[in-house]
Amino acid sequence: MTQQSIEIFLAVVRTGSISGAAQTFYITQPAVSRHIRDLENEIGCTLFQRGKGIRKISLTEQGESFLALAQRWLTLWRETREISAKTAPRLNLSSVGSISTYILPDVIQRFISEHPEITFHFSNHHSFEAYRYVENGTSNLAFISDDMYYSGVETIPAFREPMVLLASKSYELPDSPVHPAQLDPLQEIRLPWNPEYDVWHDFWFSLTAPARAVIDQMSLLEAFLSWGECWAITPISVANAISLRCAVSVHELQEGPSPRIIYYLKNPSSCPQSVPIFLACLKQSILQLSGMECLL
User: Fold this and answer.
1) pLDDT per residue over 138-189, tens digit each?
2) Other C-beta atoms within 10 Å of 106: how many?
3) Measured in whole angstroms, how far is the alpha carbon of residue 7 from the centre of its chain?
4) What is the helix, strand, coil percentage profile of the chain, to 5?
5) Are 126 and 293 in contact (CB under 8 A)?
6) pLDDT tens per residue, range 96-108
7) Of all helices (H) and strands (E), which one includes residue 294?
8) What is the rounded distance in angstroms from the CA atom of residue 266 to the CA atom of residue 48?
């Protein structure tokens, strides 16, 4: 007795015909009839009344008795599958965009290849959103750039990286290190990395001088840098990754902003084993990246 044969039996009852059940499961009528015969042979009785002139199939007395058992059997089978799904290893991961774009792809590939038994789900969230999702269990692990206090959620440093200057090749700059006073704010592509960076930026650049563009999508940064003379201040992981794909130059900054710290969030009351496994994969990747300081 299989789950499929039970579902086909119930479909015949529900639709009142072999053809109706065949349409429900997108199989042929002979295939439906074969499943019903196999089921009848297994339980040792006839389930449906058959005969010439009978257009709509009806249950025999034994079939009526079996109907209730079949419905209970299918319910128990589905409940068992739900229990299995809940206990299967799983990781729900979320992250801010810059981490998911330039660091996590290699980590995720390593994690999935080394641990295929763990189901993986990913979503992008801003830092303030991630706290709520970790607290309510929607995310098991989240990477954020803006740390804050949130009851029931632990905020733990993952890695630190310096901020550098990233400029299109056509933008003329002196040799490294470059001082903020040497940069034209009208050619800036500005990204809101974290509150500490905003304080530094407001100190060196006039609030009345608009940037060329203000964005919060990493894919747009690559596009802007390829369009003409412009510059942006980014974490070194972003700069190194973009420099492999675009015609840009990377420079150290004199009196630059503080290094960026990326934190991971977890709920200590509901932290599956998949979380430390993923963090171990992240640590391996961070140790291989130039200019990064692993804090795990």
Assistant:
1) 899 999 999 988 888 999 999 999 999 999 888 888 777 999 999 998 899 9
2) 15
3) 34
4) 45, 20, 35
5) no
6) 988 999 999 999 9
7) strand 293-294
8) 56
Residue 48's nearest CA partner among 39, 56, 37, 57 is 57
Residue 259 has pLDDT above 90, yes or no: yes
Rounded to an integer, what distance in angstroms lies between the CA atom of residue 59 and that of residue 63?
5
Strands 248-251, 119-124: parallel, antiparallel or unpaired by DSSP? unpaired
CA pair distance 10, 72, nearest whole angstrom: 11
Per the listing, tokens 């058959």 go with: 50
Report the distance separating Cα 58 and Cα 69, nearest Å: 17
What confidence tier does 208 reach under pLDDT thresholds 50, 70, 90? Answer: low
Place of tokens 């998911």: 100
Q: How far is CA 135 from CA 130, 132, 271, 274, 275, in A?
A: 8, 5, 11, 17, 15
**DSSP count for the chain of H helices, then E strands:** 11, 13
Beta strand ranges found along 139-200 (DSSP E)? 141-144, 154-161, 163-168, 189-190
> Are the C-beta atoms of 142 and 264 separated by less than 8 Å?
yes
Q: What global pTM score does this model have?
A: 0.68
- Is the distance from CB of 238 to CB of 262 less than 8 angstroms? no
